[in-house]
Amino acid sequence: MRTATNTSPAPRPDSSDPPTDAALLAGTRTDFATVFDRHAAEIYRYCARRIGTDAVDDAVADTFTIAYERRARFDATRSSALPWLYGIATNVLRRYRAAEARHRKLIQHESEASAEPTAERAVSRADADTAIRALAGELDKVPRRQRDVLYLYAAGLSYADIATALEIPIGTVMSRLHRARTRLRAALLAQGITGTTLEGPA
């Protein structure tokens, strides 16, 4: 006697679910425009934090142009393209180092002119962003690879996402972030600023 088998088709994904970034990157130019719409604002903020608004439009445009050209290389097992886009943006921003340095001097000047003790009230991930603003000039002394990790962490990426963005092991992310934090913490203390952790889980 034969055992009955279940021949009913496998359930299909809910057609109402929005397509993943991986699916869109495998699609048409119009599909890629949806990826842009999803993530352009975050990439813009990340670039603006590093180079200011003068060159940010060009940096964002370069990021998405490269992403479109390399879309076939995207790891289709990842649903979100955001860490990948952050990695491309980080590489693009290396071409804008002069603009980045000018912007750090500008936000350093703005920080010195402000009476608000922002560095004293920031904690965890916010501390990283505050330190970037309070110690903009000090960042010139931080090695570029550590600085990249610090900016991505301040932008809100997890250790895993930073590792994806920069194509490095998570252990390397943690090591570089620790070194950057140590350097900036020492600089904060030298300025008499305490109460910041520059620590926290990703």
Report on the architecture of this protein:
The protein is an all-alpha fold and 202 residues long. 62% of the residues lie in helices and 0% in strands. The chain has helices at residues 21-25, 29-51, 56-69, 82-93, 97-113, 118-121, 124-134, 144-154, 159-166, 170-190. The longest helix is centred in the first third of the chain and has 23 residues, at 29-51. The chain is globular and about 55 Å long. The chain starts with 20 loop residues before the first helix and ends in a 12-residue tail after the last helix.
- Supply Rg: 21 Å
From N to C, what is the helix and strand string? Answer: HHHHHHHHHH
Number of strands: 0
What is the approximate shape? globular
Distance between the termini: 58 Å
Question: What percent strand?
Answer: under 5%
- Biggest sheet descriptor: none
Mean pLDDT comes to 78
**Share in helix:** 55-70%
- Judged by helices, strands and strand pairing, the structural class is mainly alpha
Unreliable segments of 5+ consecutive residues: 1-6, 8-13, 114-123
Please work out how many helical segments DSSP would assign.
10
Pfam families: Sigma70_r2 (PF04542), Sigma70_r4_2 (PF08281)
InterPro entries: RNA_pol_sigma-70-like, RNA_pol_sigma-70_dom, RNA_pol_sigma70_r2, RNA_pol_sigma70_r4_t2, RNA_pol_sigma_r2, RNA_pol_sigma_r3/r4-like, Tscrpt_reg_LuxR_C, WH-like_DNA-bd_sf
Keywords: Sigma factor, Transcription, Transcription regulation
Domain HTH luxR-type: 156-183
Strands, helices and their partners?
Elements: H1 21-25, H2 29-51, H3 56-69, H4 82-93, H5 97-113, H6 118-121, H7 124-134, H8 144-154, H9 159-166, H10 170-190
Helix pairs in contact: 2-3, 2-4, 3-4, 4-9, 7-8, 8-10, 9-10
